[in-house]
Amino acid sequence: LEISLSGIYKRQGTKTPILINGPGFSLKGNMLAAANNKKTAIDLRVSSVWMNYNTFRQIFPDPLVSPWLSKRLFPVISQAKVKVDEFRLKGNLDQIAHLDNPANRSCLGLKIHWRQLQALKNKGPFPLDHVSGSLNITYGSMTIDNLRGNYGSSKVSEAWVSVPDLYAQIDHIGIRFKGLVDMSELPFLIRSPYLAQHLPPVLGTIKADKGLVPIVIKGSWLPKKASFSMDSGSFGPARCRISYDDIDLDLDEFTVGFKKGFGYRAKGRIAFGGSSFALVGQSNDRLSTLRVHANGYADIARLVDLFGGQSYLKIDCPDPRPVDLSIKKAPD
């Protein structure tokens, strides 16, 4: 380990440039110490070049930073390249000695970037791989943003995680996600313990298919309940097949949107039982109510048989007929 220090003394205090070189890493920064009749104040700023994740963990000052990082975040990361843009300590010696005191939240700041990160290895069907992004801690709150990466063949184009107060009990963690879901891998994603509750329930009805479909999700992870509360989301436009009440439905340019308190909205084209419709629909948050309006062409006889309806008339329609219909499902 090579340490280089030099000092410049002025009436206002001492400014000390710092350079630390070790195996696989290099740190540089400045420390400003100012003394008055009462207390000594320190302003320490340190940055680094890119280093591997193991080296970063060896030199990271865990006791100075919230234990949430060392207990929850860092353990799910298996490899990465990390660069410290700024690690900052600013305050008097008493404040720095008690960084766990919420009153001293302004004394510590951290900003790091990572690339080639891999996380959730052996924790699901796929690892989160080739991830880039940044982590920031300011005034006791943490954000992880500009996240991009791969989950299997699915793509994360933009993601954001927020812990509003690292000093308080963490009741919720804000999450925003935007990406492309590989339809052929959706059955695996639905069963993933890390993603199952992040996805709209209707996605669980989708059978394996091909293609990348846009998805956007916003909500909060609730640590106490180990569950995800979705505020809003969207899926599509998609071309796929779903099974609803044991009926196979072929969807084209289909979109599903969700907003808490307003439920689900869907639109697109749908084909089943020899019929084809342009469709719009809506449901409540729990999918216990359903309203659908569709217009198109229908094979009446096959539809009646498909939905198990009873008819006292013989229906003979050799060709699909124009139809405009509405379907309503009330709570059980």
Could you characterize the architecture of this molecule?
The protein is mainly β and 332 residues long. It is 10% helix and 57% strand. The protein has five helices and 19 strands. The chain has helices at residues 53-59, 67-73, 93-97, 186-191, 300-306; strands spanning 2-5, 8-10, 13-22, 25-35, 40-48, 51-52, 77-92, 108-119, 128-138, 141-151, 154-163, 173-182, 212-222, 227-244, 247-259, 263-272, 275-283, 290-298, 321-329. It has a 19-stranded antiparallel beta sheet that branches. It is elongated and about 95 Å long. The termini are far apart.
Oligomer: single chain
Q: How many β-strand stretches?
A: 19
Query: Whole-Å distance between the termini?
Result: 70 Å
Q: Characterize the overall form.
A: elongated
Helix % is under 10%
Report the radius of gyration as a whole number of Å: 28 Å
Q: Sheet bearing the most strands, described?
A: 19 strands, antiparallel
- In DSSP terms (H or I, runs of 4 or more residues), the helix count works out at 5
Q: Which sequence of SSEs, written as H and E, runs from N to C?
A: EEEEEEHHEHEEEEEHEEEEEEHE
Helix- and strand-based class?
mainly beta
What share of residues are in beta strands?
A: over 45%
The low-confidence runs, each spanning 5 or more residues with pLDDT under 50, are: 1-7
Query: Mean pLDDT, rounded to whole units?
Result: 81
Helix-strand blueprint:
Elements: E1 2-5, E2 8-10, E3 13-22, E4 25-35, E5 40-48, E6 51-52, H1 53-59, H2 67-73, E7 77-92, H3 93-97, E8 108-119, E9 128-138, E10 141-151, E11 154-163, E12 173-182, H4 186-191, E13 212-222, E14 227-244, E15 247-259, E16 263-272, E17 275-283, E18 290-298, H5 300-306, E19 321-329
Antiparallel strand pairs: 1-3, 2-3, 3-4, 4-5, 5-7, 6-7, 7-8, 8-9, 9-10, 10-11, 11-12, 12-13, 13-14, 14-15, 15-16, 16-17, 17-18, 18-19
